[in-house]
Specification:
The complex is a heterodimer of chains A (71) and B (149).
Chain A (H helix, E strand, L loop, with lengths): L5 E3 L1 H6 L6 H8 L3 H8 L7 H10 L4 H4 E3 L3
Antiparallel strand pairs in A: 1-2
Helix pairs in contact in A: 2-3
Chain B lengths: L2 H25 L9 H28 L7 H35 L5 H36 L2
Helix pairs in contact in B: 1-2, 1-4, 3-4
Classes of the chains: A mainly alpha (71), B mainly alpha (149).
């Protein structure tokens, strides 16, 4: 599966937040662990709402977690 | 494997079990399996019971574990499955309309036995379409879950 144009630093951020697991993050944002895994691997672009939820968990702005690389 | 993926597998297996039962009811047991005809029916009955129990266990377990089991990605994958199912239904309905038209045109010229078969065909065709559409939906979902979406 091709990677999406939206990349992110979630894996890095989780590591620096007490090594938060994908399941912990999924529970906090109301998603499944598989979705968090797909987002981290840039195989799935989250909705704006989910992106905001994820950014809020790390007390960051959306653009600090996600970046868009136009081809 | 996510719970939605398990549901997709269960749905696909249900469809296949239903298809097997339907084929045996409509066409009878294939001649090669006739010596085991009692066993074949038993196997099919067991298959359907196992499937129902399996789906029940998944459903009960899903209610007991307080975790998110469905999110926006599952909805999007399901939408892709529905899209494929819709295409199959659409093509089937169009071909069925064509079939009915041809039967009506041929009615004055065809013999009675042929017409009788042709008039029974749409019912079987619709059942197969239902199974094919539902199976295609499950397969598309499983492909997306396995490949990553």
């Amino acid at each position: 599966m091709a990677k999406t144009a939206v990349s992110n630093t979630i894996r890095h951020l989780r590591f620096h937040h007490n090594e938060m697991t994908q399941q912990d993050l999924a529970d906090r944002v109301g998603a499944t662990r598989q979705t968090i895994n797909a987002i981290e691997a840039a195989k799935y672009s989250p909705s704006l709402e989910l992106a905001f939820r994820i950014a809020r968990v790390f007390d960051l702005k959306v653009e600090e977690v996600f970046s868009f690389q136009e081809e | 494997m996510s719970r939605q993926e398990v549901y997709s597998w269960a749905s696909l297996l249900s469809n296949l079990a239903f298809l097997l039962v339907y084929i045996v009811i409509v066409f009878g047991i294939p001649s090669i399996l006739e010596p085991y005809s009692g066993n074949v029916i038993q196997v099919l009955v067991v298959l359907v019971i196992v499937d129902l129990v399996f789906q029940g266990v998944i459903s009960i377990q899903g209610k007991r574990i307080p975790m998110v089991d469905r999110d926006e990605r599952d909805d999007q994958i399901e939408a892709k499955g529905f899209k494929m199912g819709y295409y199959i239904f659409l093509v089937s309905i169009i071909t069925l309309i064509g079939h009915l038209f041809v039967v009506n045109v041929l009615e004055p010229f065809a013999d009675a036995d042929y017409l009788e078969i042709m008039k029974q065909l749409p019912m079987h065709y619709l059942v197969f379409t239902m199974i094919a559409g539902s199976s295609a939906k499950s397969i598309v979902q499983l492909v997306h879950y396995r490949r990553g979406y």
